[in-house]
Amino acid sequence: MSQPLLFQSSDQATERITLFADVILPLPLPKLYTYRVPFDMNDDIFVGTRVIVQFGAKKILSCIVADVHETPPAGYQAKYILEIIDEKPVVTPQQLKIFNWIAEYYMCTIGEVINAALPSALKLSSESRIQLHPQFNAEYPVYPLSPAEEKIVFALGQNKTLTFTEVGNLLQINHFHKIIKSLIQKEVIIIFEEIADKYTPKVVKKLRLSPNFVHEAEMLEELMNQLAVRPKQLDVVLHYLQKVPVHQNVHLNEKGVDKNILTSNPHLSLSSINALIKKGILEQFETIVSRFPVDDTKPIPAFNLSEHQIAARDEILNLFGSKDIVLLHGITGSGKTEVYIDLIKKAMEGGGQVLYLLPEIALTAQIVTRLIKVFGNRLGVYHSKFSDNERVEVWNGILSGRFSVVIGVRSAIFLPFYNLSLIIVDEEHESSYKQYEPAPRYNAREVALMLATYHKCKTLLGSATPAVETYYNAKTGRWGLVTMNKRFGQAGLPDIELVDTRRESQKKTMHSHFSQKLLAMIESKLKKEEQVILFQNRRGYAPYINCHDCDWIPKCKNCAVSLSYHKYNRELRCHYCGYHETMPHECPACGSAMIKTVGFGTEKIEDELKLLLPEANIQRMDLDTTRSKNSYQQIIADFEANNTNVLVGTQMVTKGLDFENVSLVGIINADSIINYPDYRAHERAYQMFVQVSGRAGRKGKKGLVIIQTGNPSQGIFQKVMENDYMALYEHEIQERRKFNFPPFMRVIKVTVKHVDEKLNEQAAALLAKEFTDRLPNNQVLGPEVPYIFKIRNYFLSEIHIKLDREHTSLKSAKLVIADAINQIKFNKDFRNIRVVVDVDPV
DNA sequence: AGCACGCCGACT
DNA sequence: GTCGGCGTGCTC
Known about the structure:
Layout: E1 19-24, E2 33-37, E3 50-54, E4 60-69, E5 83-84, H1 93-105, H2 110-117, E6 126-132, H3 147-159, E7 161-163, H4 164-171, H5 177-185, E8 189-195, E9 202-209, H6 217-226, H7 231-243, H8 252-255, E10 257-258, H9 259-263, H10 270-278, E11 282-289, H11 307-320, E12 325-330, H12 336-349, E13 353-357, H13 365-375, E14 379-382, H14 388-399, E15 405-408, E16 420-426, H15 444-455, E17 458-463, H16 468-475, E18 480-484, E19 495-500, H17 501-506, H18 516-527, E20 531-535, E21 544-547, E22 564-566, E23 571-573, E24 580-582, E25 595-598, H19 602-612, E26 618-621, H20 629-640, E27 646-649, E28 662-667, H21 671-674, H22 681-693, E29 704-709, H23 715-721, H24 725-738, E30 746-754, H25 757-774, E31 779-784, E32 790-791, E33 794-803, H26 810-824, E34 834-839
Parallel strand pairs: 12-17, 12-18, 13-15, 13-16, 14-15, 16-17, 19-29, 20-27, 20-28, 26-27, 28-29
Antiparallel strand pairs: 1-2, 1-4, 3-4, 3-5, 6-7, 6-8, 9-10, 9-11, 21-25, 22-23, 23-24, 30-33, 30-34, 31-33, 32-33
The structure holds a DNA duplex.
């Protein structure tokens, strides 16, 4: 790693060079801002450190130093940097390069990238607070105060300072701004900005013997004699000495013992412990500890790779000799994870860092536990459900070299690696690697590849069902390709059976959403005490409800969608903006009580199955049941412990989980997965079917998959049942070529939003025309009104630009697009349009 | 992104 | 006649 630039050595400090720093503010601003470095900070300012500046009239913010130079800005007076937060950079030079690349490639600002990249505890921002005016005398106010003002003055007397939100809570009203204004005028209070450090280290209370008793052996002995009359206290000291053998090594006493080890011991009395502290025999102190417990005792256990795994690993290593990127195409259950682990070990032996990316829903406790067993405390985990303090510790742990492997979700690509030697992108085809809202709309897989080129390291992409673009690159020889098509262990691939729900409906053998066949199989598996997973790719109870008499359908008032019915709280809810209302008892349009639900989600499946199989223990796992960290763990633990017989869920049940006792997987409604208006619909459906099927029958037992569909003759099922990825790929790549989709063209989606439908339409049409005129060698499609044409009261139009790389440079095309968008805002009718650019949308 | 300045409707 | 709505423009 290159060292942070020292711009001036301390012995030259007397020369008083005037320095300026260009900083990146964590805001969507198009450029950097230049601040002046106070002379006394000249020796401490480095690229990548955080500094505190005032931005605007009052806001105080932390930002990242991107450059330090001696060029005074022209045309304005630079403000001074107020403070330098970090002694050493928290952002590495490689990161700044990558961040700039992301901003350019995904057409957003560097500030937006920084904002997404830094854990929020590293982003400090001031908050306005009020306190009493130093000259204010509560006994003799100069001006009379209103009751509300009195209340604030009283609270300030107690609390010294208040934030605006605290004032709001205190007065129980929203319009408190004028009250504050009035208090300032009356010179009762003053406003100031306070910036608080958000990262709080974890502190534990510890106990040790007072130094008096350990310096000399006699003292300790004497203490024991003294305590002979206090057997309970003696007991505590003896326990302490057992944990900390001070008599063997005096220096052990310094580190003491965790207080709760003594206090939580049921054989020791709390009051005796406190008495010893009071008497000064024990001394209490605090230390800062890691949130990731250090455990050096675990050796890296050896495990044996199978013949096929060794072959795959060697092939990958061999290909890395000539290629920087290798695709590992391994069927579900072929044991890709062990290959990854082996490669990670090898990379670590060379002293490099490793990044192992997984999609959010695949980063489960199961995989983490497995990796901890191998890598112990050298493994950092970066997950969105982690607290901010934990994220900061991972961030710092990488900077300090404590962690050399990180397993993480897409945002882990932002971490401050300085010496990557391997990146693994598992489930490479997953669309959740792409962030859609807010900017940066990046794809972590693509950023990972760029990260690898900056670090000159290798990338391994892994999937059972690679994205068509990825496979194309591998097949054409640009990237390496390694295939694993044997399942690890004895188990073969599961049997897959189709059930024609349309025919069963005609025969009247459907039990609501369950075919005769599926229901019978569930019952038979449960009888054998085996477990079942049911997959339904839609949460809630029903996607909409409908009045039987007048056809009324409740719609969201902010979005062009019908409201989904959630039964557990009798609520109608919009999945786009969160708007919700209670489920009406009768139709508000005609008064009829005949309201029926249409379609179904996981909640309804769970509900109906409980009626059909009252004996079975059924659990549901979807976004609604896993909102909190523990609920997710609980559902998994219950299923693992066999307390649950049937698990009903969305995509969440399909990834990262291995359950040994699952012998049946049911896909309730395959058609809802296939019939999607998108060029990737088939690819995605195939990936999902294969992924779900992979949950059936691991470890020796052959599993069964039942797919329910109203149209079993569709070609995709044949490919799924025969596990024929190649057929899927060949079909898809031809379609892509024929209709000019990636990888043959680059797609940029431009969405125009406006509260006024007409203006939105006009602006989009104008923009599309501008694109067409200025990008003559490329295809501009639209504007089109999307299926959901209004979200959060904004009307939408979409323009798709397909860039032909043969004729246009991506870079210049993006400049043209950005310029056209800026141009259109000069027209004052269109000043209020919002334009969202999505590069490589998924 | 905030925040301040600035011009048009419903209240004392 | 004022308060206060949020449109618009700026922040080194």
